[in-house]
Design goal:
This protein is of the alpha/beta class. It folds into four domains: about 290 residues, TIM Barrel (Alpha-Beta Barrel), CATH 3.20.20.140; about 180 residues, no CATH class; about 60 residues; about 170 residues, no CATH class. Strands 9-10-15-12-11-14-13 form a seven-stranded mixed β-sheet. Helix 16 crosses helix 19 and helix 28 crosses helix 29.
């Protein structure tokens, strides 16, 4: 039976300047080539592994995870993950290497490989232990300075794969060097876990080394595999890789010469192409499928566990959460009404059912730490929709009195963890909270989430310009074309380039335009998220490699917040706001004054009906006031004339790009001023839209419209919001809209009203602001 060819050595743009395509593009191309599986091996990490895995599964391509390891002697070792144990070992190995190295200079030691070798498969050959100088057509194999006396002595291991610029002609010692290398890898990984990798890119010297590798494989009973050492999805990706090489090596295309690849062969190739290239070695093609069958690990089987919160004897996490919630309810409410009691019981039941009790306890514990150390903290975001969060002191917003929808925060169909953002004073106070989390969970048990820094207008234009050897004056003029890091969209790209001083007939104008579009959005390097932290029951470094952040005392994971959420890894956002520092200082000044109620001053109980405060807002004297200090806000405040707290909530929400683009500002202000009548799609929607004068402004209103007009449950309404808001799947959007239409028809809603409601909801979902966010900001 003929077996398929599977590419087992692919690098993406998440190898940071060493790959020219997104992981998603590679997965899509593999599907076009009808490849049943493909391996992604980015340099020194699994940065793009989750994106690749999702895209591959969407295209019916089985994702295989691996990594190119930068060894301490300058060589590269490619490894593939076989099972969960192997993935854990890879993450631990990379974490160990990154944390002892300078940022972006990871180096693995040969003598530490044995303890992490289980579950990993090594590829030995042109794709790993190679030094390629394609400009000269030279491929050099590492030249050992002496035969290893011991398998894993430090002295011998540091000599392995050493680069030797003198090996452009056949070295009499190369066969012995290869044999020593094979012996080392076999001793480390086991004979069945070492494969000899062959590549054919039609460059000088390549086939001589391939012949030596074939002889070595047969002499040591090692299997051959063919790969293409892929660095870009399609042949045109070679241009991107050449520019990235110039950026990485701080040179330009006119001088790069030998640093650049000799041809455009390192793209994904079809089985037919690879069989033709390796027609003399069909077993090297067949073995790719045989090896791939062994590589069964999937990120869906990560094994992550959320930390267990230590509770008093006689309690479970759920029972302890219930105890402190009811205690908090007595503090928050003068009297716990039946409505509040019902809301709390419903929320606690769902939290218990979903197994989220420990999460709420850990966030509550962080809040307590802040209060014990005199650090002002406020939860915001969709957490403000939760009465449990209010009673735990996480948020200052009472969702019962403000009629917020709990399902916007948490519902039974939710696949991921709840999302609670904590605002903290910026600077040392926030850093104290971050360091406390590191102290509790250890440097390997907690980490900041990554922030992938990608090429945008200014950075892409400047670095492409340098690679194309444009004059410094042209490069500087490019920088002045950007207001916020991107080209303004008022002109075509070519016109903007001409405005920078590059004439249309410049011979490199077409290349610049082509490269700008190709590089835009590709990852440049890894940063850290402003406040996202992830924690784990065991060692976080079992599930994702960790590395040093640029800020001392911090560790960052190799995945961003979206990757972590997709994989079910819990994230808590600790966001630093300068305004929180100002507010804390102001509270402390108030508490120094002689006033009888100074001890009870907190965000949840600050007066919301102070007339002088509203006079200041009505006069637009709000420079330096959080959320209402912009020119647009100051221009709107005299027209809005806020007279109560909820007016401020609307002011915060309405002056945003979405409502402005959705033409919601002027209708609302006209209705508020009595210049336009207040109308509703249906009288049944008056309780939903009355506070915003019939103009839908908040996401929660969209949920309530679906619940009132179509009898949607809270879960169904939240599913509607997600489907419409993210615009990720047109099929999904059409499906939920059809469900909404059918439900309204069953309820007897007139067809013309159905059309208006669906049209309104569909467009409103793109710009609606969460009411819970607006209330939190207004406080």
């Amino acid at each position: 039976m003929t077996m398929s060819y599977i590419e087992l050595h692919t690098c993406s743009a998440f190898s940071f300047l060493r790959g020219g395509s997104f992981p998603e593009h590679l997965a899509e191309t593999a599907a076009e080539l009808e490849m049943p599986a493909m391996a992604l091996l980015d340099r020194n990490g699994v940065y793009g592994a989750q994106r690749f895995s999702i895209a591959a599964r969407e295209h019916n391509v089985r994702p295989i995870i691996g990594c190119e390891l930068s060894m301490q002697d300058g060589s590269i070792l490619a490894v593939l993950v076989e099972d969960r144990r192997g993935y854990k070992n890879l993450c631990e190995l990379l974490t160990q290497a990154h944390l002892r190295s300078e940022k972006s200079k990871c180096a693995v030691r040969w003598d530490e490989l044995p303890q992490f070798a289980e579950g990993l498969v090594a590829l030995f050959g042109l794709g790993s232990a190679r030094v390629s100088r394609a400009g000269e057509g030279v491929l050099a194999i590492a030249n050992f300075s002496g035969r290893a006396k011991s398998m894993m002595t430090r002295k011998s291991s540091e000599r392995l794969f050493r680069r030797d610029a003198e090996t452009s002609t056949r070295d009499a010692r190369s066969s012995q060097n290869l044999a020593d290398c094979a012996k080392l890898l076999i001793g480390t990984f086991g004979r069945e876990n070492v494969f000899v990798e062959l590549q054919r890119h039609f460059v000088r010297g390549e086939e001589r080394i391939n012949r030596e590798l074939i002889d070595l494989a047969r002499a040591n009973q090692l299997s051959l595999v063919a790969t293409n050492g892929v660095q870009y999805a399609k042949p045109y990706g070679r241009e991107v890789l050449d520019v990235f090489t110039c950026i990485r090596e701080h040179t330009h295309l006119d001088d790069a010469g030998k640093l650049l690849t000799q041809n455009a062969e390192r793209h994904l190739k079809s089985e037919r192409q690879m069989r033709a290239i390796f027609a003399d070695l069909p077993e090297a093609i067949e073995n790719t499928s045989r090896l791939a069958e062994r590589l069964t690990f999937s990120l869906e089987n990560l094994g992550y566990e959320f930390p267990e919160y230590p509770v008093p004897a006689g309690h479970t996490m759920d029972s302890f959460l219930r105890t402190i919630v009811w205690f908090g309810a007595q503090q928050r409410y003068a009297a716990v009404s039946p409505k509040v009691k019902h809301q709390l019981e419903e929320e606690l039941a769902l939290i218990t059912k979903l197994g989220f009790g420990g999460y709420f306890l850990i966030v509550w514990d962080i809040i307590n730490f802040c209060r014990e150390h005199n650090i002002m903290v406020q939860g915001r975001g969709s957490a403000a929709n939760s009465a449990v969060c209010y009673c735990l002191g996480i948020t200052p917003v009472d969702p019962v009195s403000t009629h917020l929808v709990f399902e916007r925060f948490l519902n039974e169909s939710r696949k991921g963890w709840p999302d609670i953002d904590l605002d903290l004073p910026s600077g040392n106070r926030r850093e104290a909270v971050i360091q406390e989390i590191y102290r509790r969970y250890g440097k390997h048990g907690a980490a900041m989430t990554a922030n992938v820094i990608s090429y945008r207008g200014r950075s892409a234009a400047r670095e492409i310009s340098k690679a194309l050897n444009f004059s410094p004056s042209v490069i500087d003029r490019f920088s002045h074309l950007f207001a916020n890091g991107d080209f303004p969209h008022t002109l075509e790209l070519e016109a903007q380039i001409e405005a920078a001083g590059l004439p249309k007939d410049h011979p490199r104008m077409p290349a610049f335009v082509r490269l700008y579009h190709a590089i835009y959005g590709l990852p440049r390097h890894l940063g850290q998220h402003s406040g996202g932290m992830i924690i784990c029951q065991n060692k976080l470094s079992w599930f994702v490699p960790l590395e040093n952040a640029s800020m001392p005392g911090r560790v960052v994971a190799q995945w961003d917040k979206d990757d972590c959420e997709d994989l079910g890894i819990v994230k808590v956002d600790l966001l630093g706001l300068g305004m929180m520092s100002v507010m804390q200082d102001a509270f402390e000044l108030c508490q120094q004054r002689e006033r009888p109620d100074r001890s009870g001053l907190d965000l949840a109980h600050i007066p919301k009906n102070d007339e002088k405060t509203f006079e200041i807002m009505q006069s637009a004297d709000t420079i330096g006031v959080f959320q209402i200090e912009s020119r647009a806000q100051m221009a709107t405040l005299p027209r809005m004339k806020p007279e109560c707290f909820y007016d401020v909530v609307i002011e915060v929400a309405i002056i945003r790009p979405g409502p402005i683009q959705g033409d919601m500002v002027h209708p609302y202000l006209a209705r508020r001023a009595g210049k336009e009548p207040v109308t509703y799609f249906d009288d049944r929607l008056k309780p939903v839209l009355e506070r915003t004068l019939g103009v839908p402004l908040f996401q929660e209103q969209m949920l309530k419209i679906a619940m009132v007009m179509a009898d949607f449950s809270g879960d169904e309404a939240e599913e509607l919001r997600r489907a419409l808001s993210f615009h990720r799947s047109e099929e999904r959007m059409n499906k939920v809209c059809a469900k909404l239409r059918a439900a309204m028809e069953r309820k007897g809603v007139a067809p013309d009203k159905i059309d208006k409601i669906i049209q309104s909801i569909s467009s409103f979902a793109l710009y609606g602001f969460p009411e819970s966010h607006a209330i939190s900001f207004a406080i």
